[in-house]
């Protein structure tokens, strides 16, 4: 467990469109670019082993703009291939807010970050008391059938609320800006509502039909 006092003021950030990491969830990554191999090696030298996942932000004024909120993950698994690439797993620890980008000699980007406002990320798994699982699973079944995707339904049915909602938020094929909205949801209930809206939009083309919640 990482405590709030252990969170660093400066964080290496990995801008990757569409790659969403959420607290207590796991994100597998394939690291092969030299600058990110260096980022990973530097992360191994720290006690926290944190890397900040962040979405690039479409901006007419800058091609390098980043969204202000990302999620830090701790390297919890890694393996090295014969040609020097890494297969790693990040476990989500806490969201952060970028305060400013720092200049330095590292080939990757680093930012000064703040962690306030995300206290629930370091706590226990969240629950959603208003979650209507049967209706949600029915909606999900329609979504997967429409895309002709095979699903391990037993695993989905057995997953607790947070694991189910966060895993689907990370795995389903939404636009990067939609992924950002899921990341910034203040609580699990809001993330579930956002996820339902996105699934309904994908199925019905954004019609005005009532959203299933």
Describe the structure.
The protein is an alpha+beta fold and about 210 residues long. It folds into two domains: about 120 residues, Archaeosine Trna-guanine Transglycosylase, Chain: A, domain 4, CATH 2.30.130; about 70 residues. About 30% of the residues lie in helices and about 25% in strands. The protein contains six helices and six strands. Strands 1-3-4-5-6 form a five-stranded mixed beta barrel. β5 and β6 form a beta hairpin. α2 runs parallel beside α6, α4 packs across α6 and α5 runs antiparallel to α6. The longest helix is centred in the last third of the chain and has 17 residues. The radius of gyration is 18 Å and the shape is globular. It starts with 9 loop residues before the first strand and ends in a 9-residue tail after the last helix.
Can you say what the CATH homologous superfamily of the largest domain is? Answer: LON domain-like
Any guess at the CATH architecture of the largest domain?
Answer: Roll
Q: Write down the secondary-structure element order.
A: EEHEEEEHHHHH
Mean pLDDT: 90
CATH topology of the largest domain: Archaeosine Trna-guanine Transglycosylase, Chain: A, domain 4
Uncertain parts: 206-213
Would you tell me the structural class of the helices and strands? alpha+beta
First-residue to last-residue Cα separation: 33 Å
How many runs of DSSP E, i.e. beta strands?
A: 6
What is the 3D shape?
Answer: globular
List the strand order in the largest sheet: 1-3-4-5-6
Question: Brief overview, please?
Answer:
This protein has 213 residues and is α+β, with helices and mostly antiparallel strands. The protein is built from six helices and six strands, in the order E-E-H-E-E-E-E-H-H-H-H-H.
């Amino acid at each position: 467990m990482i405590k709030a006092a252990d969170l660093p003021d400066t964080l290496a950030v990995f801008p990757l469109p569409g790659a969403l990491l959420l607290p207590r969830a796991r994100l597998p990554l394939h690291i092969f670019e030299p600058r990110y191999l260096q980022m990973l090696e530097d992360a191994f030298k720290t006690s926290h082993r944190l890397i900040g996942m962040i979405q690039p932000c479409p901006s007419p004024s800058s091609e390098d703009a980043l969204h202000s909120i990302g999620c830090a993950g701790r390297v919890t698994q890694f393996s090295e291939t014969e040609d020097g690439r890494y297969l790693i797993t990040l476990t989500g620890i806490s969201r952060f807010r970028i305060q400013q980008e720092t200049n330095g000699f590292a080939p990757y980007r680093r930012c000064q970050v703040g962690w306030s406002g995300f206290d629930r990320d370091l706590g226990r798994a969240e629950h959603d008391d208003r979650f209507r699982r049967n209706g949600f699973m029915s909606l999900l079944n329609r979504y997967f059938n429409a895309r002709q995707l095979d699903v391990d339904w037993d695993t989905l049915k057995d997953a607790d609320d947070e694991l189910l909602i966060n895993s689907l938020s990370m795995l389903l094929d939404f636009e990067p800006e939609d992924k950002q909205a899921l990341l910034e949801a203040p609580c699990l209930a809001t993330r579930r509502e956002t996820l339902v809206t996105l699934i309904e939009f994908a199925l019905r083309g954004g019609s005005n039909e009532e959203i299933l919640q």
